[in-house]
């Protein structure tokens, strides 16, 4: 999936955090909803202007960022 279809970063919106294109809903908010036990359908009901594809793009974007994260161990 090409995340740029759904996820954007703009320094003037939400301090440059990645958001769903055309909204002020951050990828972080979506992740926190899932982390707090919300189901996909509950998120869609809470934010009816979002689509499943947008939510899955947010999850994929986060996974991609985690996959490329570098861990530096302190000794």
Description:
This protein is mainly alpha-helical. 43% of the residues lie in helices and 5% in strands. The protein has a two-stranded antiparallel sheet with strand order 1-2.
Structural class: mainly alpha
In whole angstroms, the N-to-C terminal distance is 38 Å
Q: Helical segment tally?
A: 3
Mean pLDDT: 93
What best-fitting shape do the alpha-carbon axes yield? globular
Helix content: 40-55%
**Strand residues, percent:** 5-15%
Order of helices and strands: EEHHH
Care to count the β-strands?
A: 2
Give the helices and strands, then pairings.
Blueprint: E1 7-8, E2 19-20, H1 27-35, H2 40-46, H3 52-67
Q: In short, what is this structure?
A:
The protein is mainly alpha-helical and 75 residues long. The protein has helices at residues 27-35, 40-46, 52-67, and strands at residues 7-8, 19-20.
What descriptive keywords fit this protein?
single chain, 75 residues, mainly alpha, globular
